[in-house]
Structures are given as C-alpha cells and as structure tokens.
Amino acid sequence: MVAAWHHNKILFGIEFLVAGLTAFYMFRLYYNIFWGKATHYHHTPHEAPFVMTIPLMVLAFGAMFSGFLPFHALVTSDGLPFEAHIDWSVAIPSVLIGVLGIAIATLMYRKTTDLPSKMANAFGASYKWAYHKFYMDEVYLFVTRKIIFAHISTPVAWFDRHIVDGFMNLVARTVENTSMSIKGMQSGRIQQYGYVFVTGAIALVLIFVYLW
C-alpha cells in the first residue's frame, strides 16, 4: 500500500477501502457464528480430532509470532538485507479503517437488529447485485452449459465417438476380416509355401521383364 500511496492514489484508495471491508465482513462472520441465535443440530457438535487440531495450532502459533522473524534479512536476492520500515502515514489510516469496519460490523451484527435490512433496502439494486455475486455463477453456468457444452463439447464428443472411434473400429474390423479370410493360407505345409514362393518369384520376373 505504501507504493500505491506514493505512485497511484486511485489504487491506494481501492486497497484502503478493501482493508475496511475485509475487517467488516470478517467480524460480521465472527458475530454471526459466535454471537448469533442458538442453532439446533441433528447431531451434537464436537471438537475436531487431534489430527486436525494440531496442524491448526501450529499455524496459529506461526501466525502469532511470524511477524517477529527478520524476513527482510533472511530472504534476499543479492545477499544484502532488504531495507524495511513502517510508513506511519499509511499504517495508521489502515489500522483506523480496519477499526471502523469492526465497529460497523459490531453495531450491525453483535445483536439482532433491523439495521442490516434497512441498509440493504437503501442500497436497492446495488445490494441485490452484490448479494448475488454480480451473477457471475449464472453467467458461468450459461457460458459452460449453453455455449461450451451444447455447441462445442457435444459436437466434438460426437466427432470423436463416431468419426475417430468409428474409423479405428473400421480399421480393426477390416484387419480382422482380412485375417479371417487369408488364415487358410497358413497351412503349415512346406510344399505349399515353396509353391507360393516360386510362383510369386516367377510372376515378379515376368512383370519386370515384359512391363518395365
């Protein structure tokens, strides 16, 4: 964000707004899960087994203390430590926008109120589009099912099944039928093989002598 602040104010504004939105929706999720209404389950919830809990504990421990590791001195391309410092003109507003997002989420979702519904109605169509994820799932399903599957994949599958596989099956049947029709020539009698060999040699000699 520091680079965006110094070189692209529009990009910084987008990142700044997204930081606040991230804090808002994460605490909205937190309040809906841990501060919401009591949920009745068909089966009593239970803690995850250790095979799942231990990796999560390791990740949580790393998340808590990884910031104290001097990565700027360890990860380097030229052997020199990377110069890093905190730009308070960016850090303080980023923290404040995060706190503001948390405060709004607390006001709206810590207790059950009609404020979310009022805000949803106030935004009107914008809220509806955002709620439906800008209809990206519907567009994706339309493109994949109605266009790609119906007009591209289906003809390709038909061509592969009837033309490619059909041609290979035709070759296989032709070879099989030809083999069945000439297998009688493999009698195992040396006299017959010698007769065919001599006859073929004489035929080739006559062809070369009288035609070429």
- Please tally the β strands and state the result: 0
Which regions are unreliable across 5 or more consecutive residues at pLDDT < 50?
none
Tell me what portion of residues adopts beta-strand conformation. under 5%
Shape call: elongated
What's the helix-strand series?
A: HHHHHHHHH
Radius of gyration: 38 Å
Helix content: over 70%
| Structure classification | mainly alpha
- What is the CA–CA distance across the termini? 86 Å
- The average pLDDT value, as a whole number, equals 87
Largest sheet: none
The figure for the number of domains is 2
Count of helical stretches: 9
What do you see in this structure?
This protein has 212 residues and is mainly alpha-helical. 3% of the residues are buried. The radius of gyration is 38 Å and the shape is elongated. It has helices at residues 2-7, 9-34, 50-65, 71-74, 88-109, 115-123, 125-131, 136-182, 190-210. The longest helix has 47 residues, at 136-182. The termini are far apart. α2 packs parallel to α5 (88-109) and α6 packs across α7 (125-131). The chain is 75% helix and 0% strand. It folds into two domains: 2-37 and 48-123, no CATH class; 139-210. The chain is built from nine helices and no strands.
Question: Any chance you could write out the topology, listing elements then pairs?
Answer:
Layout: H1 2-7, H2 9-34, H3 50-65, H4 71-74, H5 88-109, H6 115-123, H7 125-131, H8 136-182, H9 190-210
Helix pairs in contact: 2-5, 6-7
